[in-house]
Each structure stands twice: as structure tokens, then as C-alpha cells.
Amino acid sequence: MTNPKLALIPSGYKGGTNPTVYSILPSDGSGDFTFDRANGYASRVRKDGLIEEVSNDVPRLDWSDGNCPSLLLEPQRTNLLKYSEDYSQSEWSKIRSTISTNQSIAPNGTFTADKIIASTDNNTHRCDQAITLTDGTTYSLSFFVKSSEYNCIRASIGQSGLTFGNVASFNLNTKTVSTTGTIENAEILDFGNGWFRCVLTMDAGTTDRIVIGLGIDDSYSFAGDNSSGLFMWGAMIEEASYTSSYIKTEGEVGGVTRLKDECFNGGDADLFNITEGTFFVDANNFGTPLNNYSMITISDATGSNYIRFIYESSRIRVSVLGLGDYFITGVNDNERNKVATTFKENEMKVFFNGSLVHTDTLGVLPTGLSKLNF
User: Fold this and answer.
1) Residue 87 needs a FRET pair 20 to 30 A away by CA distance; which of 126, 192, 235, 338 works?
2) What is d(CA 362, CA 89) in angstroms, rounded to the nearest whole number?
3) Minimal CA–CA distance to 242: which of 212, 196, 297, 284?
4) Bridge partner residues of 107 (DSSP)
5) Which residues lie below 8 Å from residue 99, measured CB to CB, with a gap of 6+?
6) Which tens digits make up the pLDDT trace of 313-360?
């Protein structure tokens, strides 16, 4: 295989004026990408595992996946909650519970995590926040929790309580999730240092609130002692079918919005206008995307000549001008996959995670390729 003409491995960037994501090839800078994210709180996970706020127009090299960074590109999202890190505020209703502020080091490295403490009532113990929800619309709720005396937590969206209906329960000791009713997705993500991000996606019920309750050893109705509980930080709810990176809020009416990331203008016709080659992408499609697909495309200036990888729910579509579509099925959301297509006169091959899965004869070889979009 000959050396690639363009290689984007997220490792270098420039913020501020003319923000840029650097390609390692070509070395003269002609393959570098322009980046844009206008305003709104944005965060990433640093190499040390801590969550860090990122300024406007700064590309986010995110280390959530382990030993190497990924370029995090997300659609516009809004955290609808108020005071995502301060549960002592009146916007959070404390039901048979109290809040002790600033009791532990939070996932961002600051001493700002609150402790939610159960009262002596032999009943459920929870924190609620009233927000405007659209009945039947899909929302994703997430929050960070850490065990103290208690080790379980449960949550729901648009319900009056947690003893019936659509509820997700998270056991921090066993790292397991159980659900009742209709839940689209519920998972527990390990953030290190004892912290977990609990994620819940479901259609909202008829009550305009989110509900989060304390538990111990999978029991959620018990008598507390006015001192025992668990640590909590960084709550977030989005009108979306999957959870995105954390957005901090304080008292903002209507929540805080992070605008979409855009990465564009890498390369030109001299770089991409080739008669044969390999198009390789290593990416994680985190969930069912906006409008049900995301695309990574090499095309001409008009978009009429192209090679595309189209990430849809449960599959990846490889689309080449003149040949049609080939579908890689059985692909899971929030899963990293490597896809490649080789193309030359009268032949195209598709590879999925290192295995050849399709060979076909090209009808028309794409020409005039000059743009890489994702």
C-alpha cells in the first residue's frame, strides 16, 4: 500500500483566531481543517480522566475511549436543568433528603461534589427538579454519582415518583442496571476515581419533572439516619435519543446550549483527485444521529461525485457514485468501528474491522474529488 495522501489523527490543534485541526499528512498544511464552534459551554475528557471546560472555537481532543484522543464532533444540544452542580438550590426539591455541599472531589477535579443524605423517614428519598417536558418526546438524562454509605440510585423522566412506571436503577457496586416499564436505554459508565455517569433515555411521562432517588443494596424505600448518602455532580437532560458530553448550568432560564462542532475545508482537488485509492475511517457513532444519519464523504465541489460512509441506526452504508449502496448491518450504537473502501478502475472492495466483506465492479469511477466533509 502506498503512503496516504491525507491522514487526520487527532493530536494537534489551534484555537482562537482561525481555529484549526492539523492533519499529519500532507506536511505542508494543505490538508489542515478549519474548525468552528461559536459559543456555549463545551467540555471534553482530558488524558488524566478529568472533565475540562473548553473555550469557544477550540477543537475538543477527547480521551474518553482510552489511550489516544478522538476529535469530538457533536450536534447542538441544550442542558435543560438549572444548577447542574449545586443541589442545594431551591430549584432542586429535596424529598425526605438534605444536601451537604462541597463534600468530595468532583469529576472535573474541583471540590464541588454534593452529598445527598437520606432522612430518618422509612420511605423513598429523592431530589426532583421541575422542568417543562413534552409528553411522549424522547429525552436523555445523565448524572455523575459516587458511593458513600449508599451505593444505588434510580431515576425517571416525567413521572411523579420512582415506585412505579418507567424507572432505571443503577447499582454502583456491581456496575449493573435494571429497568421497569419502557426504557429506550440505560447504562452506567465508569469515569474512574469511584465516579460513574448514569445515563437514561426514555419518552417523557405526563409530569413536568425529573426524579432521582437514593438506594442501598438495591432497596429504595428505607429509613435513613440524617448522615448517610452518596455523592452527586453534573446532572443534565437533553431532548435527544442519546447523551452527549456534559454541559454545565447555573441559574439560566431555558438551560445552556452548546452549539454544534464543525470541521471543514481540509484538502483540495490536487490532494483528492485520484484515479484509485483507499478511504479509511475509524469512528464511533455514539447513537442514533440527528435526522437518523451521519456522513463522512469525499466528493467534488457539487457533491455529484462521491464516496460516502453513512452511519445510520444499526448499520453503516457505503455509497459510491454509479455503484449504489452496500450495507454493513448489525452495527451497535456507541461502538467504535473501522471501515475502509478501496477503489480503482473496475473494482471496489469494502473492509469492516479488518475483514473483506464486499467486492464489486465499479459502474463509474468518481472523479473531480476535492472535498472531505464530516
Assistant:
1) 192
2) 62
3) 284
4) none
5) 87, 88, 92, 114, 115, 116, 117, 127
6) 788 888 887 677 889 988 877 788 999 998 887 888 999 999 999 998
Q: Where are the alpha helices (DSSP H) in 328-370?
A: none
Homologous superfamily of domain range 268-374: Exo-inulinase; domain 1 (2.60.120.560)
What's phi and psi for 357, nearest 5 deg? -115, -10
Does the predicted TM-score (pTM) go above 0.85? Answer: no
Beta-carbon count within 10 A of 336 CB: 12
Kindly list the domain boundaries of the chain, sorted by start residue: 78-258, 268-374
DSSP class of residue 110? S
Measured CA to CA, the distance from residue 147 to residue 173 in angstroms comes to 8
Average pLDDT value for residue range 254-283: 79
Distance CA 203, CA 138 (A): 4
Three-state secondary-structure class, residue 271: helix
C-alpha cell at 24: 499529519
Q: What backbone phi and psi angles, to 5 degrees, belong to 272?
A: -100, -20
CATH architecture of 78-258: Sandwich (2.60)
Q: Which conformational region is residue 272 in: left (phi greater than 0), alpha (psi within -120 to 50 degrees), or beta?
A: alpha
Which three cell numbers, joined as nine digits, stand for 172? Answer: 454502583
Instruction: Indicate if 268-374 has the same CATH topology as 78-258.
Output: yes
Q: What is the pLDDT of residues 170-180, one digit of tens each?
A: 999 999 999 99
CA 330 remoteness from chain centre: 20
Other beta carbons within 10 angstroms of residue 319's beta carbon come to 17
Classify strands 347-352 and 222-223 as parallel, antiparallel or unpaired: unpaired
Strand partners, 297: 308, 373
Q: Give residue 42's pLDDT.
A: 92
Cβ-based neighbour number of residue 84 at 10 Å: 24
